[in-house]
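Quick one - first record:
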Amino acid sequence: MANTDIKELILIATFIFLLAPAFIVLYVNLYNQRKKRHIEEKALLESKYQQELLKARTEIQEETLTHISREIHDNITQVLSFVKLNLALPAKSTKQQTEQRIEESRALVAQVITDLRDLSKSLSLEHIMHLGLVKTIELEAERINKIGIINVDISVGGDAHSLGEQRELVLFRIFQEALNNAFKHSHATDLKIRLDYFDHLFNLTIQDNGVGFYAGALPNSGSGLKNIVNRAALIGAEAAIESSPGEGCFIKVTIDPLTRFTHAHGS
Protein backbone atom coordinates (compact mmCIF):
# COMPACT_ATOMS: atom_id res chain seq x y z
CA MET A 1 0.00 0.00 0.00
CA ALA A 2 2.82 2.30 0.82
CA ASN A 3 4.29 1.92 -2.66
CA THR A 4 0.90 2.62 -4.19
CA ASP A 5 0.51 5.79 -2.11
CA ILE A 6 3.96 6.93 -3.09
CA LYS A 7 3.21 6.33 -6.75
CA GLU A 8 -0.01 8.32 -6.48
CA LEU A 9 1.80 11.18 -4.80
CA ILE A 10 4.45 11.12 -7.50
CA LEU A 11 1.78 11.16 -10.21
CA ILE A 12 -0.06 14.02 -8.54
CA ALA A 13 3.15 15.99 -8.05
CA THR A 14 4.13 15.34 -11.67
CA PHE A 15 0.68 16.45 -12.85
CA ILE A 16 0.86 19.65 -10.79
CA PHE A 17 4.41 20.27 -11.99
CA LEU A 18 3.30 19.90 -15.61
CA LEU A 19 0.22 22.11 -15.13
CA ALA A 20 2.06 24.86 -13.24
CA PRO A 21 3.61 26.44 -16.36
CA ALA A 22 0.21 26.41 -18.03
CA PHE A 23 -1.35 28.22 -15.05
CA ILE A 24 1.52 30.71 -15.02
CA VAL A 25 1.11 31.39 -18.75
CA LEU A 26 -2.66 31.76 -18.30
CA TYR A 27 -2.20 34.14 -15.37
CA VAL A 28 0.34 36.24 -17.28
CA ASN A 29 -1.99 36.41 -20.29
CA LEU A 30 -4.94 37.48 -18.13
CA TYR A 31 -2.77 40.06 -16.38
CA ASN A 32 -1.53 41.45 -19.70
CA GLN A 33 -5.07 41.60 -21.07
CA ARG A 34 -6.32 43.44 -18.00
CA LYS A 35 -3.36 45.81 -18.13
CA LYS A 36 -3.94 46.46 -21.83
CA ARG A 37 -7.65 47.03 -21.23
CA HIS A 38 -6.86 49.40 -18.35
CA ILE A 39 -4.42 51.36 -20.53
CA GLU A 40 -6.97 51.56 -23.34
CA GLU A 41 -9.73 52.70 -20.97
CA LYS A 42 -7.43 55.28 -19.43
CA ALA A 43 -6.44 56.56 -22.87
CA LEU A 44 -10.11 56.75 -23.87
CA LEU A 45 -11.04 58.68 -20.74
CA GLU A 46 -8.04 60.97 -21.23
CA SER A 47 -9.16 61.61 -24.80
CA LYS A 48 -12.72 62.38 -23.68
CA TYR A 49 -11.38 64.68 -20.96
CA GLN A 50 -9.24 66.62 -23.41
CA GLN A 51 -12.16 66.83 -25.85
CA GLU A 52 -14.38 68.25 -23.10
CA LEU A 53 -11.73 70.82 -22.17
CA LEU A 54 -11.32 71.81 -25.81
CA LYS A 55 -15.09 72.07 -26.17
CA ALA A 56 -15.28 74.22 -23.06
CA ARG A 57 -12.53 76.51 -24.35
CA THR A 58 -14.25 76.84 -27.72
CA GLU A 59 -17.61 77.58 -26.12
CA ILE A 60 -16.08 80.21 -23.84
CA GLN A 61 -14.55 81.95 -26.83
CA GLU A 62 -17.80 81.70 -28.82
CA GLU A 63 -19.81 83.09 -25.90
CA THR A 64 -17.29 85.89 -25.39
CA LEU A 65 -17.46 86.76 -29.08
CA THR A 66 -21.26 86.87 -28.89
CA HIS A 67 -21.12 89.32 -25.99
CA ILE A 68 -18.46 91.38 -27.77
CA SER A 69 -20.52 91.51 -30.94
CA ARG A 70 -23.53 92.68 -28.93
CA GLU A 71 -21.49 95.32 -27.12
CA ILE A 72 -19.96 96.62 -30.36
CA HIS A 73 -23.43 96.90 -31.86
CA ASP A 74 -25.23 98.33 -28.82
CA ASN A 75 -22.50 100.49 -27.34
CA ILE A 76 -19.48 101.32 -29.46
CA THR A 77 -21.36 101.71 -32.75
CA GLN A 78 -23.87 104.04 -31.15
CA VAL A 79 -21.17 106.15 -29.54
CA LEU A 80 -19.29 106.48 -32.82
CA SER A 81 -22.53 107.37 -34.62
CA PHE A 82 -23.09 110.11 -32.05
CA VAL A 83 -19.54 111.37 -32.58
CA LYS A 84 -20.20 111.49 -36.32
CA LEU A 85 -23.35 113.53 -35.81
CA ASN A 86 -21.67 115.71 -33.23
CA LEU A 87 -18.89 116.62 -35.66
CA ALA A 88 -21.37 117.55 -38.38
CA LEU A 89 -21.16 121.18 -37.28
CA PRO A 90 -23.78 123.66 -38.46
CA ALA A 91 -22.41 126.28 -40.82
CA LYS A 92 -23.22 129.08 -38.36
CA SER A 93 -21.61 127.46 -35.30
CA THR A 94 -19.65 129.79 -33.08
CA LYS A 95 -16.06 129.09 -32.17
CA GLN A 96 -17.11 128.20 -28.63
CA GLN A 97 -19.76 125.74 -29.90
CA THR A 98 -17.26 124.15 -32.27
CA GLU A 99 -14.64 123.71 -29.55
CA GLN A 100 -17.23 122.27 -27.18
CA ARG A 101 -18.39 119.68 -29.71
CA ILE A 102 -14.84 118.74 -30.61
CA GLU A 103 -14.00 118.28 -26.91
CA GLU A 104 -17.11 116.13 -26.39
CA SER A 105 -16.21 114.03 -29.41
CA ARG A 106 -12.61 113.66 -28.25
CA ALA A 107 -13.81 112.36 -24.85
CA LEU A 108 -16.20 109.91 -26.51
CA VAL A 109 -13.53 108.60 -28.89
CA ALA A 110 -11.14 108.14 -25.94
CA GLN A 111 -13.82 106.09 -24.18
CA VAL A 112 -14.35 103.99 -27.32
CA ILE A 113 -10.61 103.33 -27.54
CA THR A 114 -10.61 102.15 -23.91
CA ASP A 115 -13.62 99.91 -24.55
CA LEU A 116 -12.00 98.42 -27.65
CA ARG A 117 -8.76 97.78 -25.75
CA ASP A 118 -10.72 95.94 -23.06
CA LEU A 119 -12.56 93.95 -25.71
CA SER A 120 -9.35 92.96 -27.46
CA LYS A 121 -7.99 91.62 -24.17
CA SER A 122 -11.13 89.58 -23.60
CA LEU A 123 -10.57 87.79 -26.92
CA SER A 124 -7.57 86.00 -25.45
CA LEU A 125 -8.62 82.99 -23.39
CA GLU A 126 -5.11 82.68 -21.96
CA HIS A 127 -5.29 86.29 -20.80
CA ILE A 128 -8.68 85.68 -19.24
CA MET A 129 -7.56 82.60 -17.33
CA HIS A 130 -4.36 84.34 -16.22
CA LEU A 131 -6.52 86.83 -14.33
CA GLY A 132 -8.05 84.09 -12.20
CA LEU A 133 -11.63 82.93 -11.78
CA VAL A 134 -12.92 85.83 -9.66
CA LYS A 135 -11.53 88.60 -11.88
CA THR A 136 -12.62 86.81 -15.04
CA ILE A 137 -16.20 86.48 -13.82
CA GLU A 138 -16.16 90.11 -12.60
CA LEU A 139 -15.07 91.35 -16.03
CA GLU A 140 -17.72 89.24 -17.75
CA ALA A 141 -20.37 90.54 -15.34
CA GLU A 142 -19.22 94.12 -15.93
CA ARG A 143 -19.60 93.64 -19.67
CA ILE A 144 -23.05 92.07 -19.29
CA ASN A 145 -24.23 94.81 -16.94
CA LYS A 146 -23.04 97.44 -19.38
CA ILE A 147 -25.12 95.86 -22.15
CA GLY A 148 -28.12 95.90 -19.84
CA ILE A 149 -29.63 92.51 -20.72
CA ILE A 150 -29.53 91.22 -17.16
CA ASN A 151 -28.18 92.56 -13.87
CA VAL A 152 -25.34 90.42 -12.52
CA ASP A 153 -24.30 90.81 -8.87
CA ILE A 154 -21.10 89.15 -7.60
CA SER A 155 -19.89 88.56 -4.06
CA VAL A 156 -16.81 86.72 -2.78
CA GLY A 157 -16.31 85.07 0.58
CA GLY A 158 -12.99 84.02 2.05
CA ASP A 159 -9.51 84.43 0.62
CA ALA A 160 -9.68 83.93 -3.15
CA HIS A 161 -6.92 81.69 -4.50
CA SER A 162 -6.21 79.60 -7.57
CA LEU A 163 -8.07 76.32 -7.92
CA GLY A 164 -5.96 75.28 -10.90
CA GLU A 165 -6.28 76.52 -14.48
CA GLN A 166 -8.28 73.54 -15.76
CA ARG A 167 -10.74 73.66 -12.87
CA GLU A 168 -11.21 77.40 -13.26
CA LEU A 169 -11.68 77.02 -17.01
CA VAL A 170 -14.56 74.59 -16.43
CA LEU A 171 -16.02 76.67 -13.57
CA PHE A 172 -16.01 79.76 -15.78
CA ARG A 173 -17.83 77.81 -18.50
CA ILE A 174 -20.37 76.66 -15.90
CA PHE A 175 -20.91 80.34 -15.03
CA GLN A 176 -21.49 81.12 -18.70
CA GLU A 177 -23.93 78.20 -19.05
CA ALA A 178 -25.90 79.49 -16.05
CA LEU A 179 -25.83 83.02 -17.46
CA ASN A 180 -27.19 81.77 -20.79
CA ASN A 181 -29.93 79.82 -19.06
CA ALA A 182 -30.86 82.86 -16.98
CA PHE A 183 -31.60 85.24 -19.84
CA LYS A 184 -32.43 82.85 -22.67
CA HIS A 185 -34.70 80.34 -20.94
CA SER A 186 -35.42 81.62 -17.45
CA HIS A 187 -36.04 85.21 -18.66
CA ALA A 188 -34.46 86.47 -15.44
CA THR A 189 -33.66 90.10 -14.76
CA ASP A 190 -31.24 89.48 -11.89
CA LEU A 191 -28.44 86.96 -11.42
CA LYS A 192 -26.57 86.59 -8.13
CA ILE A 193 -23.14 84.96 -8.18
CA ARG A 194 -21.22 84.01 -5.05
CA LEU A 195 -17.80 82.42 -4.75
CA ASP A 196 -16.89 81.07 -1.32
CA TYR A 197 -13.31 80.05 -0.56
CA PHE A 198 -12.86 77.89 2.53
CA ASP A 199 -9.74 76.03 3.70
CA HIS A 200 -10.78 72.71 2.18
CA LEU A 201 -13.85 73.63 0.17
CA PHE A 202 -14.96 75.89 -2.66
CA ASN A 203 -18.56 76.78 -3.49
CA LEU A 204 -19.87 78.53 -6.57
CA THR A 205 -23.54 79.47 -6.24
CA ILE A 206 -25.62 81.01 -9.00
CA GLN A 207 -29.20 82.15 -8.45
CA ASP A 208 -31.61 83.86 -10.82
CA ASN A 209 -35.12 85.29 -10.38
CA GLY A 210 -36.53 83.74 -13.55
CA VAL A 211 -39.60 81.64 -14.31
CA GLY A 212 -38.08 78.44 -12.93
CA PHE A 213 -39.10 74.88 -13.77
CA TYR A 214 -39.93 71.58 -12.10
CA ALA A 215 -36.67 70.18 -10.72
CA GLY A 216 -37.66 66.70 -11.88
CA ALA A 217 -37.72 67.96 -15.45
CA LEU A 218 -33.96 68.59 -15.50
CA PRO A 219 -33.09 65.50 -17.61
CA ASN A 220 -35.42 66.82 -20.32
CA SER A 221 -34.45 70.44 -19.97
CA GLY A 222 -31.88 72.41 -21.92
CA SER A 223 -28.49 70.84 -22.54
CA GLY A 224 -26.85 73.79 -20.77
CA LEU A 225 -28.06 72.67 -17.34
CA LYS A 226 -27.10 69.06 -18.05
CA ASN A 227 -23.67 70.28 -19.14
CA ILE A 228 -23.27 71.99 -15.78
CA VAL A 229 -23.74 68.68 -13.95
CA ASN A 230 -21.50 66.75 -16.36
CA ARG A 231 -18.71 69.29 -16.37
CA ALA A 232 -18.72 69.63 -12.61
CA ALA A 233 -18.13 65.88 -12.38
CA LEU A 234 -15.28 66.28 -14.87
CA ILE A 235 -13.28 68.29 -12.32
CA GLY A 236 -14.26 66.26 -9.28
CA ALA A 237 -17.03 68.66 -8.22
CA GLU A 238 -20.69 68.14 -7.39
CA ALA A 239 -23.41 70.28 -8.95
CA ALA A 240 -26.87 70.62 -7.42
CA ILE A 241 -29.66 72.37 -9.34
CA GLU A 242 -32.85 73.42 -7.56
CA SER A 243 -35.85 75.10 -9.12
CA SER A 244 -39.61 75.30 -9.08
CA PRO A 245 -42.08 77.25 -11.24
CA GLY A 246 -41.99 80.95 -10.45
CA GLU A 247 -39.07 80.57 -8.04
CA GLY A 248 -36.10 80.95 -10.38
CA CYS A 249 -33.15 78.57 -10.49
CA PHE A 250 -30.45 77.91 -7.88
CA ILE A 251 -27.18 76.20 -8.86
CA LYS A 252 -24.49 75.17 -6.41
CA VAL A 253 -21.14 73.71 -7.44
CA THR A 254 -19.01 72.31 -4.62
CA ILE A 255 -15.42 71.21 -4.95
CA ASP A 256 -12.62 70.16 -2.61
CA PRO A 257 -9.55 71.93 -4.04
CA LEU A 258 -7.30 69.27 -2.51
CA THR A 259 -9.10 66.44 -4.31
CA ARG A 260 -7.27 65.06 -7.31
CA PHE A 261 -9.48 64.98 -10.38
CA THR A 262 -9.15 63.16 -13.64
CA HIS A 263 -8.07 63.41 -17.05
CA ALA A 264 -9.66 60.21 -16.14
CA HIS A 265 -9.02 60.19 -12.53
CA GLY A 266 -5.50 61.54 -12.63
CA SER A 267 -4.21 64.94 -11.69
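second record:
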Amino acid sequence: MKEFEKVGYLNHDFKMFHILDRQRKIYEFHYHDFNKIMIFLKGNINYTIEGKSYLLKPYDIVLVNAGEIHRPAVLDDSEYERIIIYVSTKFLDSYSEKDSDLNNCFERAKNEHSNVLRVTSLDKSKLYQVCKELEYSFSDNAFAKELYQKILFLEFMIQLNRTVISNHINYLDASLGNSKLLHMIEYINENITRDITIDHLSEHFFLNRYYLMHYFKEETGYTIGNYITEKRLLLAKNLLRNGCTVTEACFQSGFKNYSTFSRAFKKAYSTIPKNAQYLD
Protein backbone atom coordinates (compact mmCIF):
# COMPACT_ATOMS: atom_id res chain seq x y z
CA MET A 1 0.00 0.00 0.00
CA LYS A 2 1.35 3.42 -0.85
CA GLU A 3 2.33 5.83 1.91
CA PHE A 4 -0.54 7.89 3.24
CA GLU A 5 -0.25 11.60 2.51
CA LYS A 6 -1.85 14.90 3.34
CA VAL A 7 -3.98 16.16 0.46
CA GLY A 8 -5.51 19.50 -0.37
CA TYR A 9 -4.02 22.90 0.29
CA LEU A 10 -5.68 25.99 1.65
CA ASN A 11 -4.22 29.42 0.93
CA HIS A 12 -7.33 31.35 1.99
CA ASP A 13 -9.53 31.54 5.06
CA PHE A 14 -11.98 29.18 3.37
CA LYS A 15 -12.73 27.52 0.03
CA MET A 16 -15.91 26.00 -1.33
CA PHE A 17 -16.57 23.30 -3.92
CA HIS A 18 -19.70 21.73 -5.37
CA ILE A 19 -18.68 18.32 -6.71
CA LEU A 20 -20.65 15.77 -8.70
CA ASP A 21 -19.04 12.43 -9.54
CA ARG A 22 -21.03 10.70 -12.27
CA GLN A 23 -18.75 7.67 -12.33
CA ARG A 24 -17.80 5.52 -9.39
CA LYS A 25 -14.40 6.33 -7.89
CA ILE A 26 -12.17 4.76 -5.29
CA TYR A 27 -10.83 7.16 -2.66
CA GLU A 28 -7.75 6.60 -0.53
CA PHE A 29 -7.53 7.54 3.12
CA HIS A 30 -6.31 11.12 3.45
CA TYR A 31 -6.23 14.04 5.84
CA HIS A 32 -6.00 17.83 5.79
CA ASP A 33 -4.37 20.34 8.12
CA PHE A 34 -7.53 22.45 7.98
CA ASN A 35 -11.12 21.69 8.97
CA LYS A 36 -13.60 20.30 6.45
CA ILE A 37 -17.37 20.63 6.26
CA MET A 38 -19.29 18.49 3.80
CA ILE A 39 -22.99 18.69 3.00
CA PHE A 40 -23.89 15.39 1.40
CA LEU A 41 -26.48 15.73 -1.37
CA LYS A 42 -26.85 12.35 -3.05
CA GLY A 43 -25.24 8.97 -3.55
CA ASN A 44 -24.73 5.72 -1.69
CA ILE A 45 -21.80 6.52 0.56
CA ASN A 46 -20.19 4.97 3.61
CA TYR A 47 -17.94 7.67 5.10
CA THR A 48 -15.10 6.59 7.40
CA ILE A 49 -13.41 9.02 9.80
CA GLU A 50 -10.76 7.89 12.30
CA GLY A 51 -12.07 4.32 12.34
CA LYS A 52 -15.76 5.26 12.56
CA SER A 53 -18.05 4.64 9.58
CA TYR A 54 -21.31 6.38 8.73
CA LEU A 55 -23.97 5.50 6.16
CA LEU A 56 -24.97 8.92 4.89
CA LYS A 57 -28.38 10.26 3.93
CA PRO A 58 -28.99 13.35 1.76
CA TYR A 59 -28.36 16.61 3.61
CA ASP A 60 -26.23 15.04 6.34
CA ILE A 61 -23.49 17.42 7.46
CA VAL A 62 -20.06 15.84 7.90
CA LEU A 63 -17.51 17.61 10.11
CA VAL A 64 -13.88 16.55 9.75
CA ASN A 65 -11.34 18.11 12.09
CA ALA A 66 -7.84 18.94 10.93
CA GLY A 67 -5.65 15.86 11.01
CA GLU A 68 -8.47 13.30 11.06
CA ILE A 69 -7.94 10.55 8.50
CA HIS A 70 -11.00 9.89 6.40
CA ARG A 71 -12.34 8.60 3.12
CA PRO A 72 -15.70 8.01 1.42
CA ALA A 73 -16.49 4.55 0.10
CA VAL A 74 -18.82 4.67 -2.89
CA LEU A 75 -21.07 1.63 -2.57
CA ASP A 76 -22.65 1.53 -6.04
CA ASP A 77 -22.79 3.36 -9.38
CA SER A 78 -25.06 6.15 -8.12
CA GLU A 79 -23.93 9.73 -8.69
CA TYR A 80 -22.04 11.16 -5.70
CA GLU A 81 -22.82 14.84 -5.09
CA ARG A 82 -21.67 17.05 -2.23
CA ILE A 83 -20.79 20.57 -1.18
CA ILE A 84 -17.40 20.83 0.50
CA ILE A 85 -16.04 23.74 2.51
CA TYR A 86 -12.42 23.90 3.64
CA VAL A 87 -11.87 26.31 6.52
CA SER A 88 -8.64 27.48 8.09
CA THR A 89 -8.23 26.54 11.76
CA LYS A 90 -6.41 29.81 12.28
CA PHE A 91 -9.36 31.73 10.82
CA LEU A 92 -11.83 29.91 13.08
CA ASP A 93 -9.60 30.55 16.08
CA SER A 94 -9.83 34.28 15.37
CA TYR A 95 -13.57 33.98 16.09
CA SER A 96 -13.40 32.10 19.37
CA GLU A 97 -14.85 34.52 21.88
CA LYS A 98 -16.97 33.01 24.65
CA ASP A 99 -20.28 34.05 23.10
CA SER A 100 -19.24 33.63 19.47
CA ASP A 101 -16.92 30.64 19.22
CA LEU A 102 -17.25 29.35 15.68
CA ASN A 103 -15.32 26.21 16.67
CA ASN A 104 -18.21 25.19 18.89
CA CYS A 105 -19.79 22.91 16.26
CA PHE A 106 -16.55 20.97 15.86
CA GLU A 107 -15.97 20.76 19.62
CA ARG A 108 -19.51 19.58 20.31
CA ALA A 109 -19.17 16.91 17.62
CA LYS A 110 -16.01 15.67 19.37
CA ASN A 111 -17.86 15.54 22.69
CA GLU A 112 -20.69 13.59 21.07
CA HIS A 113 -18.15 11.20 19.48
CA SER A 114 -19.80 11.72 16.10
CA ASN A 115 -18.67 13.49 12.93
CA VAL A 116 -22.09 13.54 11.24
CA LEU A 117 -25.02 15.84 11.96
CA ARG A 118 -28.50 14.94 10.71
CA VAL A 119 -30.60 18.11 10.55
CA THR A 120 -34.37 17.92 10.12
CA SER A 121 -35.40 19.56 6.81
CA LEU A 122 -31.94 21.03 6.23
CA ASP A 123 -32.85 21.81 2.60
CA LYS A 124 -35.58 24.19 3.84
CA SER A 125 -33.47 25.83 6.55
CA LYS A 126 -31.82 29.22 6.81
CA LEU A 127 -28.49 27.40 7.10
CA TYR A 128 -28.88 25.77 3.68
CA GLN A 129 -30.16 28.99 2.13
CA VAL A 130 -27.02 30.82 3.27
CA CYS A 131 -24.91 27.93 1.99
CA LYS A 132 -26.44 28.29 -1.48
CA GLU A 133 -25.95 32.07 -1.41
CA LEU A 134 -22.32 31.51 -0.48
CA GLU A 135 -21.89 29.04 -3.33
CA TYR A 136 -23.41 31.47 -5.83
CA SER A 137 -21.10 34.26 -4.66
CA PHE A 138 -18.08 32.41 -6.07
CA SER A 139 -19.43 32.84 -9.58
CA ASP A 140 -20.54 36.42 -9.01
CA ASN A 141 -18.17 39.29 -9.86
CA ALA A 142 -20.21 42.07 -8.30
CA PHE A 143 -18.84 44.87 -6.14
CA ALA A 144 -16.86 43.79 -3.01
CA LYS A 145 -17.05 40.12 -3.96
CA GLU A 146 -14.48 38.83 -1.45
CA LEU A 147 -15.89 40.88 1.42
CA TYR A 148 -19.39 39.64 0.62
CA GLN A 149 -18.13 36.04 0.55
CA LYS A 150 -16.55 36.48 3.96
CA ILE A 151 -19.79 37.92 5.37
CA LEU A 152 -21.77 35.01 3.93
CA PHE A 153 -19.28 32.47 5.23
CA LEU A 154 -19.44 33.95 8.72
CA GLU A 155 -23.23 33.86 8.54
CA PHE A 156 -23.05 30.22 7.43
CA MET A 157 -20.85 29.34 10.41
CA ILE A 158 -23.12 31.27 12.77
CA GLN A 159 -26.19 29.46 11.43
CA LEU A 160 -24.40 26.10 11.71
CA ASN A 161 -23.48 26.76 15.33
CA ARG A 162 -26.96 28.04 16.15
CA THR A 163 -28.41 24.86 14.69
CA VAL A 164 -26.08 22.78 16.84
CA ILE A 165 -26.81 24.79 20.00
CA SER A 166 -30.57 24.61 19.44
CA ASN A 167 -30.30 20.80 19.47
CA HIS A 168 -32.43 20.53 16.32
CA ILE A 169 -30.09 17.83 15.12
CA ASN A 170 -29.17 14.21 15.65
CA TYR A 171 -25.57 13.09 15.94
CA LEU A 172 -25.30 10.02 13.76
CA ASP A 173 -23.97 6.90 15.42
CA ALA A 174 -21.14 5.16 13.66
CA SER A 175 -22.82 2.33 11.77
CA LEU A 176 -19.90 0.10 10.90
CA GLY A 177 -17.26 1.21 13.34
CA ASN A 178 -14.28 -1.08 13.77
CA SER A 179 -14.13 -1.33 17.56
CA LYS A 180 -10.57 -2.66 17.66
CA LEU A 181 -9.28 0.20 15.51
CA LEU A 182 -11.39 2.77 17.39
CA HIS A 183 -9.86 1.70 20.69
CA MET A 184 -6.35 1.95 19.24
CA ILE A 185 -6.95 5.43 17.82
CA GLU A 186 -8.59 6.67 21.02
CA TYR A 187 -5.72 5.29 23.12
CA ILE A 188 -3.07 6.89 20.92
CA ASN A 189 -4.81 10.28 20.92
CA GLU A 190 -5.35 10.22 24.68
CA ASN A 191 -1.67 9.43 25.24
CA ILE A 192 -0.15 11.37 22.35
CA THR A 193 2.19 13.39 24.60
CA ARG A 194 3.56 10.25 26.26
CA ASP A 195 6.13 7.78 25.01
CA ILE A 196 4.17 5.43 22.76
CA THR A 197 6.06 2.52 21.23
CA ILE A 198 4.97 -0.40 19.07
CA ASP A 199 5.92 -2.80 21.88
CA HIS A 200 3.86 -0.80 24.36
CA LEU A 201 0.81 -0.84 22.07
CA SER A 202 1.33 -4.54 21.35
CA GLU A 203 1.35 -5.31 25.06
CA HIS A 204 -1.59 -3.03 25.83
CA PHE A 205 -3.84 -4.53 23.14
CA PHE A 206 -2.54 -8.12 23.48
CA LEU A 207 -1.55 -8.25 19.81
CA ASN A 208 1.56 -9.44 18.03
CA ARG A 209 3.61 -6.36 17.15
CA TYR A 210 3.89 -7.31 13.44
CA TYR A 211 0.19 -8.04 13.17
CA LEU A 212 -0.53 -4.72 14.93
CA MET A 213 1.60 -2.73 12.48
CA HIS A 214 0.12 -4.45 9.43
CA TYR A 215 -3.45 -4.16 10.72
CA PHE A 216 -3.19 -0.43 11.52
CA LYS A 217 -1.64 0.38 8.14
CA GLU A 218 -4.22 -1.71 6.29
CA GLU A 219 -7.15 -0.05 8.08
CA THR A 220 -5.96 3.57 8.04
CA GLY A 221 -3.34 4.01 5.34
CA TYR A 222 -0.94 5.17 8.05
CA THR A 223 1.96 3.46 9.70
CA ILE A 224 1.55 3.81 13.46
CA GLY A 225 4.71 5.92 13.60
CA ASN A 226 3.48 8.33 10.92
CA TYR A 227 0.07 8.61 12.56
CA ILE A 228 1.63 9.53 15.92
CA THR A 229 4.01 12.01 14.30
CA GLU A 230 1.24 13.78 12.37
CA LYS A 231 -0.90 14.11 15.50
CA ARG A 232 2.04 15.50 17.48
CA LEU A 233 2.88 18.00 14.74
CA LEU A 234 -0.69 19.33 14.69
CA LEU A 235 -0.59 19.70 18.48
CA ALA A 236 2.79 21.45 18.29
CA LYS A 237 1.54 23.84 15.60
CA ASN A 238 -1.40 24.83 17.80
CA LEU A 239 0.83 25.25 20.84
CA LEU A 240 3.17 27.52 18.87
CA ARG A 241 0.29 29.63 17.58
CA ASN A 242 -0.96 29.99 21.16
CA GLY A 243 2.31 31.44 22.43
CA CYS A 244 4.48 28.48 23.45
CA THR A 245 8.17 28.64 22.70
CA VAL A 246 9.55 26.22 20.13
CA THR A 247 11.19 24.14 22.88
CA GLU A 248 7.98 24.03 24.92
CA ALA A 249 5.93 23.01 21.89
CA CYS A 250 8.44 20.29 21.04
CA PHE A 251 8.30 18.53 24.39
CA GLN A 252 4.67 19.29 25.28
CA SER A 253 3.52 17.65 22.06
CA GLY A 254 5.37 14.43 22.85
CA PHE A 255 8.62 14.75 20.89
CA LYS A 256 11.66 13.61 22.86
CA ASN A 257 14.30 15.16 20.63
CA TYR A 258 14.36 18.73 19.31
CA SER A 259 16.22 17.97 16.08
CA THR A 260 13.73 15.20 15.25
CA PHE A 261 10.86 17.61 15.90
CA SER A 262 12.40 20.38 13.81
CA ARG A 263 13.04 18.09 10.82
CA ALA A 264 9.53 16.61 10.97
CA PHE A 265 7.93 20.07 11.26
CA LYS A 266 9.86 21.43 8.28
CA LYS A 267 9.02 18.35 6.19
CA ALA A 268 5.31 18.63 7.02
CA TYR A 269 4.87 22.40 6.74
CA SER A 270 7.81 23.52 4.56
CA THR A 271 8.94 26.00 7.19
CA ILE A 272 10.69 26.03 10.56
CA PRO A 273 8.70 25.85 13.82
CA LYS A 274 9.20 29.49 14.77
CA ASN A 275 7.19 30.49 11.68
CA ALA A 276 4.12 28.51 12.82
CA GLN A 277 2.11 31.69 13.35
CA TYR A 278 2.08 32.20 9.58
CA LEU A 279 0.58 28.76 8.88
CA ASP A 280 -3.10 27.96 8.51
